[in-house]
Design goal:
The protein has 123 residues and is mainly alpha-helical. It contains five helices and six strands; from the N terminus they run ββαββααβααβ.
Length: 123
């Protein structure tokens, strides 16, 4: 997600327009999203950016907080809890307590929780 700096005047968020929301604003308040055409308001740019983030939940991946930091986010107070849940899921799956389907469902829920708890890192 990159702020628009090379355009002047006004524009509108492509996603807002698709949803029928009035979004006319100065270009300096819009963003581009890598791999997407058009300009987006901050809310939709962040939403799209989060949707592209892929967290690894297996034991071979970096800790969740470290992964969030790589994208410029933090899990804050939820970081330890998320990592403990991730570790517990992996142990339960490895020991046969969870089937593959149960593990995938639980990881999907954990991923939703992680994405909902992301906040931008302070500089």
């Amino acid at each position: 997600m990159t702020p628009v700096t090379d355009k002047k005047g006004q524009g509108e968020c492509k996603r807002c327009r698709e949803l029928g929301i009035h979004s006319r604003t100065w270009m300096c308040f819009l963003y581009t999203v890598e791999g997407q055409e058009g300009y987006y308001c901050r809310e939709h740019a962040v939403e799209m950016e989060r949707g592209r983030m892929k967290f690894g939940y297996s034991p071979i991946h970096d800790p969740l907080e470290q992964h969030a930091n790589y994208f410029g986010y933090t899990l804050g107070d939820f970081a330890d809890t998320a990592q403990q849940l991730c570790d517990a899921l992996n142990i339960c799956h490895k020991e046969g307590v969870l089937t593959d389907d149960e593990y995938n469902t639980a990881v999907s829920r954990l991923n939703d929780m992680v994405l909902n708890n992301l906040t931008e890192e302070e500089d």
